[in-house]
Design brief:
There is one protein chain. This protein is elongated. The chain has 67 residues and is mainly alpha-helical. It contains two helices and no strands. Helix content is 67%, strand content 0%. The protein starts with 11 loop residues before the first helix and ends with a helix.
C-alpha cells in the first residue's frame, strides 16, 4: 500500500537543475530524490536528539554520583 502524498511547490529552475544533475543516473525521478533527502534529514535530526538525551542522562547520573 502506498503512503498518502502531498503536493509541494518548488521553483521550476531549481527542479530542472537538480533533475539534470541527479535524475536518471542516481535517482529515477525528482520525487525519489527529495524523499531520500528528507528521510535522511529526519533520521539525522532524530539521531541528534537521541545523542542530546544521552548526554542529559549522563549529566544527571554524574550529578547523582553514579558516574
Amino acid at each position: 500500500m502506498m503512503e498518502p502524498a502531498r503536493t509541494v511547490q518548488l521553483p521550476q529552475v531549481l527542479c530542472e537543475a537538480v533533475e539534470r544533475q541527479f535524475v536518471g543516473s542516481t535517482f529515477p525521478d525528482l520525487e525519489s530524490l527529495l524523499t531520500f533527502i528528507l528521510q535522511e534529514l529526519a533520521r539525522d535530526e532524530a539521531q541528534r536528539l537521541d545523542e542530546q538525551e544521552e548526554r542529559m542522562i549522563e549529566e544527571r547520573l554524574r550529578g547523582l554520583g553514579y558516574l
